[in-house]
Amino acid sequence: MLYIYTKEVTKRLEYTLDFIFNGVLKINYELTTDIESCMLSQQAFINYSEKACGKSIHIPCNGLLSRTGTEALTLSVGLWDNLPILFDDFKGDIPFDLFSATFYLITRYEEYNSVHLDKHNRFDYKASIAWQNNFLTRPIVDEWILKFKDILLHYFPHLQIRTPEFKCISTIDVDHVYRFLGKSKIYMMAKVAAHIFKAEFTEARKIANVLLYRENDPYQQFSYLNDIHKGLKSKYILFMHVGPFGKYDRKNIYPLYSFYKYLRKENHSYIIGIHPSYKASFCAKRIKKEKSRLEKCLHYPITYNRNHYLRIQIPSSYRILNDLGIKHEYSLGYAGMYGFRAGTCHPFYFYDIEKDKTSKMKIHPNIVMDGTLNYYLKKNPEEAIAICNEMANICHSVNGEYVMLWHNNSLANMDEWKGWNTVFEKAIRYAASLAANIQR
C-alpha cells in the first residue's frame, strides 16, 4: 500500500491519482489529510504539499488541483535531467508538481476556451505547449511517471508495481465504402464515356469491370484487412461514415444495405464504431441521428467513436459523445502532426474541468495517421514506415497503446496512395512483433 498525504482531497486530485496509480503503475494507494501520519509513518509515503515532512517522498503542490474553472495559465518549461517539466519547483524530491502537470496535459486544459483554431475549427497543434517546446513526439507524461516509478522503488523497494502491456491498436476510418460502386449508374456510365473520350482506356475498363462485378471495387479492402489481422491474432476497429453528402464527407449513396449485411457476418476481426460526418462533429442532434442509423443497420448499440477529420473541440465534443453513450473515443490526435496530443499513449477517462466531473468515456489517443504523413508532411512511403516504427518503439518503451489511424482508400494502392498499402502492412507487422515479444 502507498499512502499519499495532501492538505485537501479534491476531484481533480483523485482523477489524476487514478490515472497514474491505477491506470499506469497499478499500485494500491490511500489518501490521507492527517499530517501526523505522514510525520510518523514507516510505510511508503508521498507528501503532496508545500513543505517536506517525515521520510516521505515530497512532491511540491502548486495549488492547481485545488482550484476550480479554467483560468488562463502562463507556464514555463523547465528540465528534470533531460525531461521537459511543467510547474517546476526544485524544493521537492520530485522537482515539479507532477500531479498538476499530468492533469494539465491529459485533460487538455490548454484547449479550453482556446482561440487558436485551424480552418476546420480544430485546436491548432502549433499553439500547444508541447509543440512550442519540442516534446509533442514524446509521451512526456508517461516518461515522468516511469521516472517517478524508479524513484518510488529506490525509496520503497518492497512496493509492488505492475505496468500495463504494450498494445498495437489498428483503426480504419471508412469515409467512402466504394470508389465506383454505390453511386448513380448514370453518373458512372458518364465517367466511363469520359475516359473513353480521353483515350484513357485502362481506367474506363477498370470502372466497367467493377460495375459489372468482374473485379472488386478498389476501396473494398475488408477481406485484406481481415486476413492481416487474423494472421496477427488481433482485432481492429472500423469507424463507419453514414452521414449525408458534403464537401468534406462521403460520396456513396445511402443506404448500402448489402455492405452492412456483410459487416454483420460472424467471425470478423473487427469492432465497429461510428464516424460522425463533418457537420455532425459539433452537433449532438446530427451525431445521434447518424449513430441511430448505423445501429439500425447493424442491429446492436455503437459505443466506439472517431469524428471525421479528427474534428473535436474540448470540452463540448466530449460532452456530446459522453451523453450519447460512447464508451471509447478515438478522435484525440492532430491531423497536421503525429505524436502525443495529451502527452500520453495510455487511455484515460474524459474529465470535464469546468464541471469537475469524471465521465465514463475513455479517451484513446491517436499516435499516427496516414493522412498526416502523406498529405500534411509530404512523406514518401519509406519515410512513413520509419516514422511509424519509431512511434511504435516509443509507445512500447512506456508500455502504452500504439493507435494507428488508416483509411480503407489509402490501402487501395492507387493515385496518391500508390505504395501506401505496403506502409500499412509493414507498420502493423512491426508493431505486432513488439507486442508478441512481450507475450512470450
Brief account:
The protein is of the alpha/beta class and 440 residues long.
- Helix and strand succession? EHEHEEEEHHHEHHHEHEHEHEEEEHHEH
Helix content: 25-40%
Q: Any idea of the CATH topology of the largest domain?
A: TIM Barrel
Structural class per helix/strand content? alpha/beta
What is the number of strand segments?
15
Mean pLDDT: 92
| Unreliably modeled segments | none
Spatial arrangement of strands, main beta sheet: 9-8-7-15-14
Q: How would you sum up the major sheet?
A: 5 strands, parallel
Estimated share of beta-strand residues: 15-25%
Describe the structure.
With 440 residues, the protein is α/β, with parallel strands linked by helices. It has three domains: 154 residues, no CATH class; 236 residues, TIM Barrel, CATH 3.20.20; 35 residues, no CATH class. It is built from 14 helices and 15 strands. The strands form four sheets. The chain has a five-stranded parallel β-sheet. Strands 2-1-3-4 form a four-stranded parallel β-sheet. The chain has a four-stranded mixed β-sheet with strand order 10-11-13-12.
What is this structure's SSE topology?
Layout: E1 2-6, H1 11-24, E2 29-32, H2 35-40, E3 44-49, E4 57-60, E5 78-80, E6 83-85, H3 98-106, H4 129-132, H5 140-155, E7 167-174, H6 185-197, H7 201-211, H8 222-231, E8 236-240, H9 257-263, E9 270-274, H10 284-298, E10 304-305, H11 316-323, E11 328-329, E12 348-352, E13 357-363, E14 368-369, H12 370-376, H13 381-397, E15 401-407, H14 420-439
Parallel strand pairs: 1-2, 1-3, 3-4, 7-8, 7-15, 8-9, 10-11, 11-13, 14-15
Antiparallel strand pairs: 5-6, 12-13
